[in-house]
Design goal:
alpha+beta, 2 domains, two-stranded antiparallel ribbon, 26% strand, elongated
């Protein structure tokens, strides 16, 4: 590895580096909240691992933090994501009306092409919250929509929610929307907010 991090390898005839990507964002989406687990062959300070990885990556790919795991699976802590959708060609008023219509449905079916062909599934059940801007605000080039999505099977993505808004309320947008993940972690069932998945590791450090 270019970063010179002492990564551990699995045993057996064909060993692989012990690296696991948890909850990776879909292709084409921006993200500020990607996580991975790395098994090490020897003990190294987390900050040294962070700096080594960060220095080896190109500009724009930044490693913000490394912690020593307190145990358990990181993937099990990533139960929801907060996404920001920037939609060109839709006004705030149109978006608010579409959101009210979408949330008024118990089920909204959409279609997506998968490796096994065209699949139909409900995208409404995964939506914890769906929030357009409260106020019209200053003139801007696009409307902003924030959505908290519960992770599950099938995995519901921001583009599925947009397809659901189109199916339920006829919402149409102009050029390709921008999807940006702002956070992913444990879902607080009381507040509907996405928490910090590394909090447990910091508490036991």
């Amino acid at each position: 590895m270019r970063a010179r991090v002492p990564v551990a390898y699995s045993s057996g005839f064909n060993p692989h580096p012990r690296i696991s990507y948890a909850g990776a964002a879909p292709t084409g989406a921006a993200s500020e909240a990607e996580y991975l687990e790395i098994g090490l062959a020897q003990q190294v300070r987390p900050e040294a691992v962070r700096k080594a990885l960060d220095d080896a990556l190109p500009p724009g790919l930044d490693v913000l933090e490394a912690v020593t795991s307190a145990g358990g699976s990181l993937a099990d802590r990533l139960t929801a994501s907060l996404w920001r959708m920037s939609l060109v060609g839709s006004s705030d008023e149109q978006l608010r009306a579409a959101v009210v219509d979408f949330l008024g449905h118990e089920q909204v079916e959409v279609e997506r092409m998968t490796k096994k062909g065209l699949r139909t599934f409900d995208c409404r059940a995964a939506v914890v919250s769906l929030n357009p801007p409260d106020d019209p605000g200053p003139e801007r080039e696009c409307a902003i929509l924030e959505v908290v999505l519960r992770h599950g099977t099938p995995s519901v993505r921001p583009d599925d929610v947009l397809a659901g808004l189109r199916a339920s309320a006829g919402l149409e947008v102009g050029t390709a929307p921008l999807y940006e993940r702002l956070a992913q972690g444990p879902l607080d069932s009381l507040t509907g907010l996405v928490g910090d998945p590394l909090a447990l590791d910091r508490d036991t450090a």
